[in-house]
Amino acid sequence: MNVPLGTTELRSRFEAVFGAAPDGVWQAPGRVNLIGEHTDYNEGFVLPFAIDRAARVAVRLRPDSTVRMLSTFGNQGLTTADAAALEPAAARGWTKYPLGVLWALQQRGLAVPGLDLLLDSDVPRGAGLSSSHAIECAVILALNELTGAGLSAQDMVLATQRAENDFVGAPTGIMDQSASLRGAAGQAVFLDCRDQGVRLVPFDAEGAGLVLLVIDTKVSHSHAGGGYAARRASCELGADVLGVRALRDVGVEDLEEAAGLLDPETFRRVRHVVTENDRVLRTVELLEGAGPQAIGPLLDASHASMRDDFEISCPELDLAVDTARTAGAIGARMTGGGFGGCAIALAPAGAEERLRATVASAFTGAGYAAPDIFRVRPAAGALRLA
Ligand code: ADP
Ligand code: MG
C-alpha cells in the first residue's frame, strides 16, 4: 500500500513538475459500503461511509485550454489534453476521470479552462473502494472552488455521475460520490436512491471497541460484467411482473405473494433486494440506538442473501467471510458488486491480529493468493487541504 504524500510534499512536487505553485490542494476519500448491495438501481437504500484513504489533487488553473495531468502512481508520465476539445469515450487511462469531470461541467454550461493537475492517492485501485470516484470528487471540488461555479454537493454528485456514465462509460449510480462528498468522521451516509436524500448516521466503530477490516481478495471473476447486467435484468423483470415501478416498492410482507408470481430464480433475486433494503433500514435503526455492536447479524444475513439468493459471491469471498467470523468477527459480508473484490469484517479490536492471521492462512491453505487486509475508519468527506 503506498504511503500518501503530505500536503507540503505534494505542493513542492507540483511546483517541480509544472514550474509554479498550485492554486490549492483538495482531497476526496474512497468509500466502503457497510450494507445495501444491488439496492441502488432498485431505487432502494444504501449505507456507505467515506474511508480514511483518499485521492489528493494539487491544481492550478491555466490561462489557456491545455490540461496537463500527472499521477504519482506508476510511470505513466505527463498526459496532455485540450479542455476545449474533449470527446466522451476517447480518453484512455486514469486521465479519463479528471477529464470526465471537466467535460461534465462543460455540459452544465460552465466555462472550464485548462489546468495543471498532480494526483496522489492511497485508495487501492480497482478493489471496489471507488478510487475512481475519489479522483473525480477531488477534481470537482477543486474546479467548483477555482472557477467559482457555486455547485451544491448534490450538483457535484450528479456531475460526477454524468462523468462516469457518459464520459468514462461506466454505468454507476450515485452511491460512491455521495459517500465521498458527504461523508463525515465517525458517520455513515444513509442514502435513499429514490429521492437522493442523505442522512448521516453515527458509526463510531472504534469508539465501541470495534475495528472494521477490509479483506481484499484481489480476485475479479470474469463474469463480473455479464453477471451485473443479468442481475439488473432480473430485478427489472421482477418489478414488471409485480407491477411496481422499482423493487423498492416491494416490502418483506409482500414476498409470500411474490413467490407465487415469479419464477424461482427471479424470486430469489427479488428476495435479496427486498430483504437487503429492510436490512439497511434496520442497520440505521440500530446504529442510531444500540450502536455498532448490534449490527453483526445483519451483516451476516446480508452476505448469506448475496451468496444464496443473488448469487454474486465467490469461493474467495465466502472463505474470507466465514474465516473472519470463526476468528472472532461479530459480522462480515462481501461488499461491492460481487464476483470478487472485497469483504468487510466488523470485529472486536482485540481480535484483529488473530483475524488477520487466520484469514491469511486460510487463503494459503486453499491455494489462493494472499489477500490484502487493512483497517478503515469512517472519515471526513471531500475537503480542501491547502
Ligand atoms: P475502483 O473505483 O473500484 O477503484 P475503477 O476501475 O472504477 O475501480 O477505477 C480504477 C481506476 O482508477 C484505475 O484503473 C486507474 O485508471 C484509476 N486510478 C485510481 N487511482 C489512481 C492513481 N493513484 N493514479 C492513477 N490512476 C488511478
Ligand atoms: Mg470506480
What structural category do the secondary elements indicate? Answer: alpha+beta
CATH architecture of the largest domain: 2-Layer Sandwich
Provide the number of structural domains.
2
Shape: globular
Which ions, cofactors or small ligands are bound in this entry? adenosine-5'-diphosphate, magnesium ion
**What is the H/E string?**
HEEEEHEHHHEEEHHHHHEEHEE
Q: What level of helicity do the residues show?
A: 40-55%
Low confidence ranges = none
CATH C-level of the largest domain: Alpha Beta
Query: What gyration radius follows from the Cα positions, in whole Å?
Result: 21 Å
Percentage of residues in strands:
15-25%
How many beta strands in the DSSP annotation? 12
User: Might you state the CATH topology name of the largest domain?
Assistant: Ribosomal Protein S5, domain 2
- Alpha plus pi helix count: 11
> Mean of the pLDDT scores?
96
What is the gist of this entry?
The chain has helices at 7-18, 96-107, 131-147, 153-168, 175-182, 224-242, 255-261, 264-288, 296-308, 315-326, 352-366, and strands at residues 24-35, 45-61, 66-71, 79-82, 115-121, 187-192, 198-202, 210-220, 331-335, 340-348, 372-376, 383-384.
